Predict the structure of Endonuclease V.
Amino acid sequence: VDIGLKKDIAFASVVVLSFPDLQVVDSVVTESPVRFPYIPGLLSFREIPPLLAAFTQLQTEPDLVIVDGQGIAHPRRFGLASHLGLILDKPTIGCAKSRLCGQYEEPKSEQGSYTYLMDKGEVIGAVVRTRRNVQVVYISIGHRISLDSARTLTLACCRGYRLPETTRYAHKAASSKVPQNTPMIPTP
């Protein structure tokens, strides 16, 4: 799943892929008004309603959801992936491009290398190199999945790019609905 924003309109994208071949099976992009302001750490309240609207239009129910955002690697230990997983009662993984909290040692440069993201003595995620010599992604438990399974499944969904195919397809679908010549407002 991913969200694109233009002013006060959210373009929520859900793309369902087959596994392990990662072929698109279903795809929905909905357009909804944004009803909650941007407040750091409370992104779920802004993005969940548009995402839920998109999920209701799917023809194929996913078994697992990879969210472009955080799970428990969140200052409140309950990010977008955790919220969405709880509401949908589905296994969810947070796969974020940036870190909200915690510390880590840089993983080796090889594909699949990882270290743990730690905060106050607690493991809150894995810092994973999905390709050789690329920036890391931050993987965390969303709901109903272990960190090892989240890391393994996310890596299995990466095919030559830093981000999993699920996230890449969802981002492209959401971006395609934003009117031309309008910069997308990235969600932090």
